[in-house]
Amino acid sequence: MSRPFSKPVDIRETLTRKPPTLDHVLPGLLRGSVGMLAGPGGIGKTSLELQLAVGLATGTPVLGGVFETLGVELAQQPARVVVVTPEEQADVLAHKLHAVAKHLLRPMHEGGTGLQPSAFLQRLADNLRLFAEDDAGSAMLLDARGRVSSSARGLLRAARGARLVILDPLRQFHAGDENDSGAMNRAVRLLRQLATRTGAAVLFAHHTSRAATQLGVGDAAGAARGSTALTDGVRWQLNLSQPTKDWARAHGKDEAFRREHVLLDIPKANYLAPPATKVLKRGLGGVLDWVPGLGGGRTSASATQPRRADVRRAA
Are 166 and 57 in contact (CB under 8 A)? Predict the structure, then answer.
């Protein structure tokens, strides 16, 4: 058993060799780290998760290549992905998965992947592990006292060899008080251990607060519901939000546009310069697709701190 603080970083060795390449699962989300996907209910978090999972599992671009524009080289080979969604029925996920597959198997000139259906299906069968309400069992990893359950060991086994693990929503994986910083610290710490032991990036879904939606600051890091320990504890955060009326007015868009589109922001990325807002369009079956040429005009990094304070006061 090693003694704490007994092995400091070797400065001479560190500075006399080339630093290792950072392995980005998504731009700014490294292997072995924990991230959060935040957004209000019904905004499209599950659809985005499935698109992320399918893209990584098949080695194809996600959301029309939106992440390839952020200046980070991403691995293109198919990789194992584990998705656990205790609130979703398998039949509902089947409809969503069909919609994603149909979207990606379009001809290449329409934005499809170019994969033959048989190759696409084989890659998914080999690499995607999807656990729904019917087969996830008890997903509770921490009880109300912060004790680790046997389900945590089951998740660790299922996640071995994965490049990305998605848990949706976080609320189903712990019994603690979301407003208790100690409880949320324990939850994030457990997910960090999962990421460290498997080498996977772990991404959990979480709701934004009602105040953030009302104030139109769903793009801010502080928009996440509950204790700020969640935002403080993750290394990466992606937010989905509806365009506000002010945003639509500034971009010359009407109310119908607001209903049909979603804004994607990355307000926290420890290993990436904060990118500008991206615009996604809702398609058939809830599938999201990037709309190039729209967005910009705000980056969460410039507004995260004052907005976080505003959100907490309003809540």
Answer: no
Residue appearing with tokens 């995607």: 128
Tens-digit pLDDT profile for residues 87-125: 999 999 999 999 999 999 998 878 888 899 999 999 999
Closest CA to 59 of 32, 89, 33, 79: 79
Structural contact between residues 281 and 291, judged by C-beta atoms closer than 8 angstroms: yes
Q: Please answer whether residues 67 and 24 qualify as being in contact, where contact means their C-beta atoms are separated by less than 8 angstroms.
A: no
Q: Which fold has domain 22-314?
A: Rossmann fold (3.40.50)
Round to the nearest angstrom and report the end-to-end CA distance of the chain. Answer: 45
Q: Residue 148 corresponds to which amino acid? A: V
Q: Which two tokens stand for residue 244?
A: 């506000």
Chain centroid, CA 134 distance in Å = 23
Question: Measuring CA to CA, which residue among 142, 25, 6 is closest to residue 73?
Answer: 25
Tell me the Ramachandran region of residue 102: left when phi exceeds 0, alpha when psi lies from -120 to 50, beta otherwise.
alpha
Pairwise CA distance, residues 233 & 235, whole Å: 7
Give the Å distances, CA to CA, from 127 to 90, 159, 202. 18, 11, 16
The β-bridge relationship of strands 201-207 and 29-30 is unpaired
Beta carbons of 132 and 170 less than 8 angstroms apart:
no
Q: pLDDT of 227-274, one tens digit each?
A: 999 999 999 999 999 999 999 999 999 999 999 999 999 999 989 988
The beta-strand segments (E) located in the chain are 24-26, 29-30, 34-39, 81-84, 128-131, 164-167, 201-207, 236-241, 261-269, 278-282, 288-290
Whole-model pTM?
Answer: 0.91
Q: Are strands 128-131 and 29-30 parallel, antiparallel or unpaired?
A: unpaired
Domain boundaries of the chain, sorted by first residue: 22-314
Beta carbons of 204 and 36 less than 8 angstroms apart: yes
Q: Cβ contacts of residue 149 below 8 Å, gap of 6+? A: 138, 140, 141, 142, 143
**Tokens 């804004």 -> residue:** 263
